[in-house]
Amino acid sequence: MILIDGKKAASELREKLKQEVVELKSKYNKVPGLTVILIGDMTPSQIYVRNKEKSANEVGLKSEVIKYPDSIDEKTVLNKISELNNDETVSGILVQLPLPKHIDKQKIIETIDPSKDVDGLHPMNVGNLSSGYQGSIPCTPLGCYLLIKKIESNLVGKKAVMIGRSNLNGKAMAQLLLQEDCTVTITHSKTKNLREECLQADVIVAAVGIKELVKGDWIKKDAIVIDVGINKTDKGIVGDVDFDEVSKVARALTPVPGGVGPMTIACLLKNTIECFKRSQL
Ligand code: NAD
Predict the structure, then answer these.
(1) Measured in angstroms, how far is the CA atom of residue 60 from the centroid of ligand 1?
(2) Interval 188-209: pLDDT, tens
């Protein structure tokens, strides 16, 4: 079984991006800039944002984090986003989710200029992805896609099963694999016979949020299994895939932690650089 090392893949990608930033700096005399807006004091979000900032600095991006308290009003955040939209030094804007209840997520996402939407969640970018046009691709599915391609470069005709249909993960992942000519099934909480669906799959991407949902007897021999899930347990963080069971059957599997997570952050940096490059055309 191939243990898909997301940490190593992310580090290789960051190294490439670092080189690219050096080249962009010498060509344009400026570097791409990433601004993250963090609202509230939820610990996981704070950790994610800290990691994003650290990685952005590591590859030489200009990075900034704007922090607001939980009680911030929506108008202030929307005004800040408009200001960042007009700021030439900002190539990418990310508003860390989830948001406090009194802030309308859709309004926030739609206010971000699609050309700076490094999370790929603006409806324009969702449409771009489903149409096969250029635009930002959500970071986690993009990371999963790059990991899958490392294992299998030719995915034509493969059967791919997404578990989970969120905008952030399952739906975007399905589009990426469709573009690779996979036959894609999107499953979700109301899917009947999930095990039977999974047993058909050459590629499975699990993004659910239920610890160790996917069992060894759900997996076709030689399948590639990507585990997006992050579930807190007494034993620490585990994924949506039962690692011990599935690793005995699958051809390749991502660990949790150390699989998809590091690639997500590296892809955020990649998206920021892509936004910068498109803005220079
Ligand atoms: P979500 O809650 O938005 O979506 C979960 C999906 O799972 C839904 O579409 C739902 O229909 C489906 N689902 C629920 N129960 C199911 C069941 N029994 N069988 C099949 N499908 C079921 O979650 P999300 O934002 O897509 O995140 C999913 C998981 O991925 C979470 O654990 C989250 O923490 C993790 N995540 C990880 C990263 C990373 O970088 N590694 C990034 C984003 C999210």
Answers:
(1) 32
(2) 999 999 999 999 999 999 999 9
Residue 84 and residue 72: Cα distance in Å, rounded?
18
CB 273 within 8 A of CB 24: yes
63/252 Cα distance (integer angstroms): 35
Structure tokens at 250: 């699958």
Report how far ligand 1's centroid is from the alpha carbon of 229 (Å).
6
pTM score: 0.98
H or E element that contains 186? strand 183-187
119 catalytically annotated: yes
**Fold classification of 139-261 (topology level):** Rossmann fold (3.40.50)
Its CATH architecture, for the domain 29-114, is 3-Layer(aba) Sandwich (3.40)
For the chain, the domains span 29-114, 139-261
Integer Cα distance of 69 and 71 in angstroms: 5
